[in-house]
Amino acid sequence: MVVDLMKCPSCQSPLAAPAPQCPACQLTLRRLDLKFGAVPRHAGFLTDRSETLPMRSIKELRVLLSLYNQKFPQSLFSVFVVDCVTNGSIAEYTFWLGNRARFSSLSAVGGKNFDVLLGLDLQANTAALQVGYGLEKHLTERILKRALAQAASGFHAGDIARGIRDCVLFVTAQMRIAARKAESSE
Amino acid sequence: MKLIQLTLLLSILALSVPLSAVGQMKGLSLGGPRLSASPTPTSTPAMPSALVQPPIVHKKPIPLAVKIGIVAFIFLAGLVSLALALRAWSTSNLFDRQYRFPPDPNPALRFGATKSGGCMATIAFHDDTAVDVDLTSEDS
């Protein structure tokens, strides 16, 4: 199976896996703990700390994300919308949040983590889409980029909810394809 | 027109051949002389009187309560079978099937992170500029 060369979430420099820290910028998760501090509270499926999304859109998106979770019981798709990421980029914040916040069960670690996390920084107009270790071989960086490209029109038009929905639907379709491939290869 | 006539003629010929063969087997050839002698008529046996006048059987009408009971039973049986079919359909999860992935036994752990190693894509969607999505990198 083809696997992308991993990149550092902080400096984007490619690195040979496994790597305890980034050889270029020495990034570790502990360093990000010091940078971002306490882990923010997370509501079910979608957290809007910017308070820009209408309640109706939040409810609809939570239903959509719940359906995703029913279709892929191992995987939890979470969305975290912030007004501004202080002291860092959305890539760093999403990476840190995906590892420190409790989105799924405690046992979902290493190759058993199939979570997907979409982070949005509305002030910087940036977004990051990250997958757990278990999905790295199934949802490559290129697929994640395509998912964000699907969401781009909504984000660009200021319709964040539509962008999130388009992203979730694209990831759902790609996950279905990947799961079928995994089933057939077994 | 000639083609239709030719087709009709051919179909008649095609039908006449098996018919003549059957007729010869039964001694009823269409064109040729009859080889078999005509059968001698036999006397018709006297019909038994029981067949001529069958006894009139007066059937008892089914009581209304029994009819209602049968209908109710069929209706209930239909309902039960429908309920069972619905239950089987809902548990079979035909249209909303679940997908599962095999866990990766040897993930490449990075940065001391246990859940995700930062496999991600980023996007910038500024209002005044074009959406910046890099799709140039290949899966290699």
Largest interface: A-B, 79 and 40 residues
Inertia-based shape of chain A:
globular
| Percent helix range of chain B | 40-55%
Major sheet of chain A: 4 strands, mixed
In quaternary terms, these chains amount to heterodimer
Q: Can you give the helix content of chain A as a percent range? A: 40-55%
Gyration radius of chain A, in Å? 16 Å
Number of strands of chain B: 1
Description of the structure:
The complex is a heterodimer of chains A (186) and B (140). Chain A has 186 residues and is of the alpha/beta class. Chain A contains five helices and four strands, in the order αβαβαββαα. Chain A has helices at 29-36, 55-71, 90-100, 141-156, 160-185; strands at residues 46-48, 77-82, 116-121, 126-131. In chain A, strands 1-2-3-4 form a four-stranded mixed β-sheet, with helices on both faces. In chain A, helix 3 links the parallel strand 2 (77-82) and strand 3 (116-121). The longest helix of chain A has 26 residues, at 160-185. The radius of gyration of chain A is 16 Å and the shape is globular. Chain B has 140 residues and is mostly helical. Chain B contains three helices and one strand. Chain B has helices at 2-25, 49-52, 64-92, and one strand at residues 119-124. Mean pLDDT of chain B is 71; it is low at 27-33 and 134-140. Strand 4 of chain A pairs antiparallel with strand 1 of chain B, so a sheet runs across the interface.
